[in-house]
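ERR on first pass: missing label on line 2. Operator R.T. fixed the label and resubmitted. Corrected input:
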Amino acid sequence: MIGIIDYGVGNIGSILNMLKKVGHKAEIVNKHSDFATFRKLILPGVGAFDYGAQKLNESGLWDILNHEVIENKKPILGICLGMQLMTKGSEEGKLKGLGWFEAETVKFNSLSLPKEYKIPHMGWNNILIKKPSSILSAHQQETPRFYFVHSYHVISNEPTEVLFTANYGYDFVSGLEKNNIVGVQFHPEKSHKFGMDLLKHFAENFYSEQ
Amino acid sequence: MRRIRLIPVLLFQNQGLVKTVKFKNPNYIGDAINSVKIFNDKEVDELIFLDIEATQKKKAPDMSLIKQIGSECFMPLAYGGGITKLDQVKQILESGVEKIVLNTTAFENPNLINQIATQFGSQSIIVSIDVNKNIFGKKTVFVESGKTNTKMTPTEFAIKVCEHGAGEIMINSIERDGTFSGYDIELIKSITEKVSIPVVACGGAQSMNDYISAINIGGASAVAAGSMFVYRGGNVKSILINYPSQKILDTELYAKIIRN
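pass 2 clean. output:
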């Protein structure tokens, strides 16, 4: 069973729909849930960084997540704001992130973007795979593309953690992976077969050897 | 290479999908759920689904329909029609829908845009602006499925909804709807020059070249169409759900976008 973390931020319905489509059971989890019944977790999220960090604190999930992910090594996938919350902090707010990655979240540098590149970056984009990972099929028939909606992106201070990049006016990090923790900037739950491939691999292959 | 979103717009009326001409003469296209499934299988970039009679009939959004559509869409989905309240927006966004589309309500109660933006983020709000011109050629914004003239100019209205927190604008030309006469590029340009949020062009698309003009000349960030995706080769007697393949999009659309 996969647990989708409900802290009042993000489109959980779509994630449940797609996991069901690829044949995996998922349930919404909150602080009252028995985390032992969930073998993997998904941290979704859309919206402002501080709002998300605050909600994660208020919902009582912050400490539970640190315990499950850092001490119990439970595999977790962060999506969009969910990944940004795994960094140390964001230019968007004042609150601290979970700090699981050696990374920070910054606003798209509009001065470096041609004027047709509006913020938010909204739409489909190809990704570049920077290291082998069990989160995607090893052999991709075509370049994977995913749906993005974001005004902030991650910068990594630890190149070995960078999993994917994408280009929107300039290259930016669109995926991070370290041991049992993986995060993606895009929305796999809204990315057709590419998203299905990713969620299926997360459910079946990601960090399953342990 | 910059990917441009190419978005089918589906119109719902009388329990089925229809396609209009100049917002009139709805032609029955097919079953809604089934059509959405086909569009999903064709891996469309995004889908906009509009219940075009909800507001006129003062009906609330049909949640059971929206849930069914949401569960068939593994791409971004926008829903519009009959939305007047914040709690409706919450229910819709929880059903697997990414964005809601406001038209009449954006005019009558623009503060709802602020409320939605605060709670769910601007990225979840498309304001659809329907424009028609009078016999002197003056363009104004219409609401209630094109029936009521607000007397506001398109740019006035666009700037206003941006200030209220809209995340995207879909600009639609009523006189070109369903006519295959090309987008109103001048209208699109007048909006993109005034707002910084993404603008989606709609109304009149006839060919790939129209998409390219809307982007390269009009400054649109995405392009939408109805007839293009439900009729075979521009023939309104031949209904066929269609969408260009990735290969065709690569060579005939993305490759022709300036500054890619």
